[in-house]
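[SOLVED] Predicted holo structure with pyridoxal-5'-phosphate

Edit: marking solved, answer below. Original request kept for reference. I posted the sequence and ligand SMILES and asked for the 3D complex as structure tokens.
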Amino acid sequence: MTILQAGDHVVAAGALYGGSVTLLAVNLKKFGITTTFVDATQPDAFAAAMRPNTRAVFAESLGNPSLVVLDIAAIAAVAHAHGVPLVIDNTVPSPFLCNPIALGADIVVHSATKYLAGHGTTLGGVVVESGRYSKDGRDGFAWDNGKFPGMTEPSDGYHGVKWYETFGDFGFTMRCRMETLRVYGAALSPSSAWQILQGVETLPLRMERHCSNALAVANFLQAHPAVAWVNYPGLASHPQHALLQRQMRGASGLLAFGVKGGVKGGVAGGVKFIESAQFMSHLVNIGDTRTLISHPASTTHRQLDAAQQLAAGVKPDMVRISVGLEHIDDILWDIDQALAAASA
Ligand SMILES: Cc1ncc(COP(=O)(O)O)c(C=O)c1O
């Protein structure tokens, strides 16, 4: 909302968190801002969707729940060639596993509700700007390239200040605080800020354990006869594994898999798996210390028809797990017994 105004256009990855899709496709559309969604695995698709009025490219470094790994450097090159910033939602890997700015991103956002706070206790978000701007736009993105009058012309909302001229490498941050947060009210409460800061202190330790537990779960599921498929980019067999290794320290704690579901099939199997879990919680949050499971086809995406569900990357048998920090033996025990119940 800081960058965009009526008449502007966004190119976004199709494989995004559902709330972000709604924001772009429904809410911002009401303000005259349109979005073209493209295949996040195809940098050429981003390039083909760019228009003269495109003002931002938006994508997730690791998609939720698609787990698509974004080629950040390639997409940054597309955005910069068109003189617009690349905005990355880095919620799923967290800053510990991935640094999108080092790979070319200009602005990074996080839902701090997830791994940053880490314990499912608070809501919050973070916006980070790279502060790395090309003065003439020749080797990267520049706010003063003529496409962003809101950054270069006097602000009607704040004493005529020129954000980029006055604040330079933190001009976007200042505009975000003084024009957007102040007016729309998405300000963090002190107690939420405290909980997020306390979470950040243990982020590296938790992420290492989330990654090692999730890899063990993925390996276990891959070898399990009741499992139809596993999607975890940390597996060497995943088509984007090499890209993940180039960009990230680990594949995070999120994975998805399909339940064969015995004679009743995948949807019933997915539901039964969820109902049979003993200590894994049936919750649609991610990034908690506790292992959380959900069956999107019968819950979050239930209102969509089968074709719409598939377009959103939700297969009928798909179970999503946000692998927590419990002992791996306990997690595998619960998954194993729930799979046995689901395939009975
Ligand atoms: C990738 C991603 N981005 C953003 C959000 C939104 O987070 P919040 O509820 O903290 O606004 C979520 C929530 O699930 C998410 O998974």
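OP edit: Residues 216 and 343 are 21 Å apart (CA to CA). Thanks to everyone who chimed in.
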